[in-house]
């Protein structure tokens, strides 16, 4: 990953290869939620080049560390979404058993 | 859906101190006016309300306490669920991954031995590519440029149809595609002429796919009853189709969903009591039948919002002048998504969603490892 910061560790641009709005916009949102971030934004320099530039400016911490923490946060968010979703599906299946199962009378009620 | 009423929503976003109500409304709702929707963006910056002493940053604990999923409908092919308490950027990332980055198997290479039908070879190949293959793509590897086709990265199908009856027409459907678990049966002609060794085919399978535990007694099939071509008397198609793993951003034939979308939860609020003739008029105006008439004890009739979810935001109810716009407030809840996934059949919809979330996790992990 390219990492352009000129002397100052607080401000940096990260170039993510093989990524697009999918990750960049989610990262931008998560970065913005971090109180250490003054500014962040992303751009896609050319539409036929699979690359995004993510700009991060912080209040004092190194931008690299903040971005790393943000990715960790986003990962935790994803894990929580996955867990909650799986439980919701399980719940739904319990309450609404599929038709082919009801005919076999597998439910105790 | 009584548990999704507006009071519960307001309680969910507990912040200390609270934003003034007019700002809270703009932060959490899209307001749909007769001319255009307003406050459509989400306020992302953590210090957006710093001058009011309100912290707009999202703590992970807050997210964990407020995030909910409720499944409304689920079948082999499609599902609908409510995802509450998440920003559009993440919901959209998941939607984009479902459409473009979840792998499936699709026919990529077609070896045509004979085609005398009116469908040209390239059109035929394209049609075959779009047929969904019912197989779990997680069991296969990607075929990279220098790889040879083997049992771990290729599925071979054969199609041989011929219309033999005079005056008849034959419809070739996807049911006629037969799986060849042992790989290609077509011989490479140049090879077989020059060398005396065993003739080579277009794939090099080391074992038969139906001997693998995943496919034993569970043959690979394609989506049935899709018309491939119609043949007249004497016309014939003989070909072999090689399916490989790919993702939707390369070509839509690899997209695991027929479509996948979300909409924000509609919220319809009557800002004043609407009674009598006006109530009747309001009920009549709405083509989605959102409103209902309630009989009050003293014989009066009052309009109520019975089915806000049915609201399509056609704005028919607020079209006739300003006074209607004052009475009826149409909104959308910004962090409540009604998510629908229609699978093409490779994987059930709930598995698709879980896999999509995993892909987003992998992306984050990749960035972390690149940074360390």
UniProtKB/TrEMBL annotation, chain A:
Task: Kindly give the SUPFAM superfamilies that the UniProt entry links to this protein.
Answer: RBP11-like subunits of RNA polymerase (SSF55257)
Location(s), subcellular:
Nucleus
Q: Which InterPro entries match?
A: RBP11-like, RBP11-like_dimer, RNA_pol_Rpb11_13-16kDa_CS, RNAP_AC19, Rpo11-like
Q: Which domain of life is it from?
A: Eukaryota
Ranges where the DNA-directed RNA polymerase RBP11-like dimerisation domain occurs = 12-82
Q: Give the keywords, sorted.
A: DNA-directed RNA polymerase, Nucleus, Transcription
Q: Name one Pfam family in it.
A: RNA_pol_L_2
Gene3D superfamilies reported for this sequence: RNA polymerase, RBP11-like subunit
**Record's keyword annotation contains Transcription:** yes
Its Gene Ontology cellular component terms are: DNA-directed RNA polymerase complex; nucleus
The cross-references to HAMAP family, in alphabetical order and at most eight, read: RNApol_arch_Rpo11
Which PANTHER family does the UniProt record give? DNA-DIRECTED RNA POLYMERASE I,II,III (PTHR13946), DNA-DIRECTED RNA POLYMERASES I AND III SUBUNIT RPAC2 (PTHR13946:SF28)
Q: Which family does it belong to?
A: Belongs to the archaeal Rpo11/eukaryotic RPB11/RPC19 RNA polymerase subunit family.
Could you tell me what this protein is called?
A: DNA-directed RNA polymerases I and III subunit RPAC2
TrEMBL record, chain B:
A single GO CC term for this protein reads:
nucleus
Q: What is the protein's major site of localization?
A: nucleus
Does Nuclease show up as a keyword for this record? no
A Pfam family assignment: RNA_pol_A_bac
Provide the alphabetized UniProt keywords: DNA-directed RNA polymerase, Nucleus, Transcription
**Where in this chain does the record put each Ig-like domain?**
137-207
Under Gene3D superfamilies, the record lists: DNA-directed RNA polymerase, insert domain, RNA polymerase, RBP11-like subunit
SMART domains named among the record's database cross-references: RPOLD (SM00662)
Output the CDD domains linked to this UniProt entry: RNAP_I_II_AC40
Which InterPro entries is this protein grouped with?
Answer: DNA-dir_RNA_pol_30-40kDasu_CS, DNA-dir_RNA_pol_insert, DNA-dir_RNA_pol_RpoA/D/Rpb3, Ig-like_dom, RBP11-like, RNAP_Rpo3/Rpb3/RPAC1, RNAPI/III_AC40, RNApol_insert_sf
PROSITE patterns xref list: IG_LIKE, RNA_POL_D_30KD
Q: Where in the cell is the protein located?
A: Nucleus
| Protein family membership | Belongs to the archaeal Rpo3/eukaryotic RPB3 RNA polymerase subunit family.
- UniProt-recorded name of the protein: DNA-directed RNA polymerases I and III subunit RPAC1
> What is the source species?
Eucalyptus globulus
